[in-house]
């Protein structure tokens, strides 16, 4: 961040990674995904249909 403040990142147990926005996410293939929301949920389980953004797909998994 250019203003010298640290960006807050929170890892949610069995959930997404929450990042203070706005964010620009660079994918392995070089593509970018941008979100201007004040808080952005980044998928950690890779089940999201909107990957890399979370769509709460982690909630629909069967836990054993």
UniProtKB/TrEMBL annotation:
GO molecular function: 2 iron, 2 sulfur cluster binding; metal ion binding
Domain Iron-binding zinc finger CDGSH type: 20-64
Record's keyword annotation contains Transmembrane helix: no
A UniProt-annotated Pfam family: zf-CDGSH
Top-level taxon in the UniProt lineage: Bacteria
Claim: ATP-binding is one of the keywords in the record: no
SMART domains named in the record: ZnF_CDGSH
GO cellular component annotations of the record: cytoplasm
Key words, A-Z: 2Fe-2S, Iron, Iron-sulfur, Metal-binding
Name of the featured protein: Iron-binding zinc finger CDGSH type domain-containing protein
Organism of this sequence: Mycolicibacterium murale
């Amino acid at each position: 961040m250019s203003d010298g403040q640290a960006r807050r990142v929170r890892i949610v147990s069995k959930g997404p990674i929450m990042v203070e926005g706005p964010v620009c996410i660079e994918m392995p293939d070089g593509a970018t995904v941008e979100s201007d929301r004040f808080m952005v949920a980044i998928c950690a389980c890779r089940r999201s249909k909107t990957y890399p953004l979370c769509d709460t797909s982690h909630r629909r998994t069967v836990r054993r």
